[in-house]
Design a protein that fits this description.
The chain has 145 residues and is mainly beta. It is built from one helix and ten strands, in the order E-E-E-E-E-E-H-E-E-E-E. It has one helix spanning 92-99, and strands at 3-9, 12-17, 35-39, 53-55, 71-78, 81-88, 103-104, 116-120, 131-136, 141-144. The strands form two sheets. A seven-stranded mixed β-sheet has the order 4-9-10-8-6-5-7, with helices on one face. A three-stranded antiparallel β-sheet has the order 1-2-3. Strand 5 (71-78) and strand 6 form a beta hairpin. The two termini are 28 Å apart.
Length: 145
């Protein structure tokens, strides 16, 4: 286990842990993303844009790979559902402000499979695109991106 501290904005910082997540094979590309152990209160930024969540039938993960060095994972409870919120480094300030809305899950990620995976910043950072979600029945995971 390694701990790394990084500065994210002028008013926040993050402590990271290396971890190996207990995820189904379809989500193996997310296993090496560092885990956010703790973060200082970020400057909250709000968007006036109202996004809709649109359900899609096909999983968007076929052929997807990510650079795990560009992502962080924040385990949280979203309406009592264990959620892994993955944040891309280009969206770190907004992602941490978003995470501040949820209770941090203090769990052993190597032993627990999440009910929800949220890939914050996955869709080419295009603010005009709607937020999509896919219900993966085979793995019993809701994927939001």
């Amino acid at each position: 286990m390694t701990i790394k501290n990084i500065q994210t904005t002028l008013n926040s910082s993050v402590s990271l842990l290396s971890s190996h997540f207990n995820l189904p094979a379809d989500y193996a590309f997310l296993k090496k993303v560092p885990l956010i152990k703790d973060f200082a209160q970020p400057t909250l930024q709000f968007s006036k844009k109202r996004k809709r969540f649109i359900q899609v039938k096909e999983s968007p993960l076929s052929g997807v790979s990510i650079n795990e060095k560009q992502w962080l994972c924040y385990p949280a409870y979203w309406n009592s559902k264990l959620t892994y919120i993955y944040i891309h480094e280009n969206q770190l300030s907004q992602g941490l402000a978003f995470c501040n809305l949820f209770e941090r899950a203090h769990i052993d990620v190597s032993a627990v499979v999440p009910e929800v995976i949220y890939l914050f910043g996955m869709r080419d950072f295009n603010s005009e695109l709607p937020t999509l979600f896919h219900r993966d029945i085979q793995n019993d995971i809701t994927l939001i991106y």
